[in-house]
Amino acid sequence: MILHADMDAFYTSIEQRDRPELRGRPVIVGGGSARGVVSAASYEARQHGVHSAMPSAEARKLCPEGVFLHGDMKRYAAESRRIFEVFRRFAPRVQGLSLDEAFLDISGTERLLGTPVSLGEALRSAVREETGLTVSAGIAPVKLVAKIACAEAKPDGLLEVTEDGVNAFLSPLPVGRLWGIGRVAEARLHEAGFTCVGELARTEPSQVEALLGSWGLSVARLARGEDFSEVEPYREPVSYSEENTFETDVSDPKLLERTIVAHAESVARRLRNGRLRARVVVLKIKLSRRRGPGPRGYPLLTRRMTLEAPTDDGLEITRAGFELLRRTSLPEPVRLLGVGVTGLRPAGLQSAQQLALIGEREGVERRANLNRALDEVRDRFGDRAVRRGSTDPQRAGLSHQAKRGTRDDVS
To answer: What distance lies between CA 396 and its chain's CA centroid?
Structure first.
């Protein structure tokens, strides 16, 4: 049995708990700039149509009486760690999906903790008593169904779907509720006459495959409630990245370079914290002129470079980012800029120090010593205590993701 736990309006609930004057009022946490994005909305704000990922400007029109807050990620991350400590008391295997939700494998816990429902209620009570916050839960034999059941139980509820009730539960749901079905795939399914999950479940998998390609076989299995993925307490990372949306479109190459420095240093520190090095640097650029509807309506340019040796040095990542920017023709200003790395491997394998020429080794070692010293200063005095010359990137909104290699990592 799998339990999916998801905090109710996490960021705004923390604000309302800590500031009594906000209770009962529509509270919205997110970017305050013209391009800000709603990160979380209280249930009072949701009654006005406000939801996460909505542009803040649109939220202000829908809810002019709303209380808009920038948010405090350090406070939210600290609360997340407390909540995950509670989760781990109820299950040996916990897979964090973000700061405020997780899968728990509760198989075989009946003798110690009772039925799945009694365990779920005990978990919800523990979270409420220890944090003053509410959490909803869904229980089912598979992860997909548990997650959907949790969404149906919100706010502050619990719903169990037993093994013999999975098909009846899934059947009337819109096809868009299945994992991986985005707007394009959903429109394609609708055109073919599939509107609910039950219709897909009763269809030959080969027909779904013909409609969606090889991926359609997985969709057909999910429609029948067949989800073979397990709760994974720890999954090896495949990439790290940092990005930001500018408050106004940027044409100044110097500002773009300073932003690359900031992102490269952040990514490098996360690599060092995770004892990893990266072989590939990726530059992500979103241009300013919209070509289509929705968040994907802006042109996206992606450039990558393979380094001679894996690195965890922000200077090396910065140099690669500068080179990728130099190679990229920008026909218009930049809306978003991101720096990422992939090709990760343990720091002890094929390190830059091992591969460097004798004449270069001293410089590599000096930078490694400098990076260690900078990390120690930041750990003691905060992220802004010292940094290489850069700009502090503007963010359109706060992320719910627990980034690997940071203090927000709950994995």
So the answer is: 14
Single out the catalytic residue among 101, 160, 242, 316: 101
Q: How confident is the model at residue 353 (pLDDT cuts 50, 70, 90)?
A: very low
- Give the amino acid at 91: A
3-state secondary structure 317-342: HHHHHHHHHHHCCCCCCEEEEEEEEE
* CA dihedral of residues 317, 323, 324, 327 (deg, nearest 10): 180
- Is 101 one of the annotated active-site residues of the chain? yes
Report the phi/psi class of residue 264: left, alpha or beta, with left for phi > 0 and alpha for psi in -120 to 50.
alpha
- Count Cβ atoms below 10 Å from residue 193 Cβ, excluding itself: 8
Q: Contact, 288 vs 332, CB < 8 A?
A: yes
* Torsion sign over Cα 53, 58, 64, 70: positive
Among candidate residues 72, 88, 65, the one with its CA nearest the CA of residue 17: 72
Instruction: Say what the pLDDT of residue 352 is.
Output: 46
CATH of segment(s) 239-381: 3.30.1490.100
Confidence (pLDDT) at 180: 84
Residue 142 has phi, psi (to 5 degrees) of -135, 160
Count of beta carbons in the 10 Å neighbourhood of residue 33:
18
Torsion (CA) 62, 68, 72, 76 in degrees, nearest 10? -50
- Gap between the Cα atoms of 230 and 104, Å rounded: 10
**Torsional sign, CA 263, 265, 268, 270:** negative
Please answer whether residues 385 and 377 qualify as being in contact, where contact means their C-beta atoms are separated by less than 8 angstroms. yes
CATH number of the structural domain 171-223: 1.10.150.20
Residues 398 and 74: their CA atoms lie apart, in Å, by 11
Q: List the domain boundaries for the chain.
A: 1-162, 171-223, 239-381
CA distance 60 to 54: 10
Q: Which residue has the tokens 């940092």?
A: 242
Tokens 């009570």 appear where? 125
pTM, entire model = 0.78
Q: Which CATH number fits domain 1-162: 3.30.450.20, 3.30.70.270, 3.60.10.10, 3.40.1190.20?
A: 3.30.70.270
Could you read off the pLDDT of 187-238 as tens digits, one per residue? 999 999 999 999 999 999 998 888 888 888 999 999 999 988 899 887 788 8
- Angle, CA of 164, 205 and 143, to the nearest 5°: 45
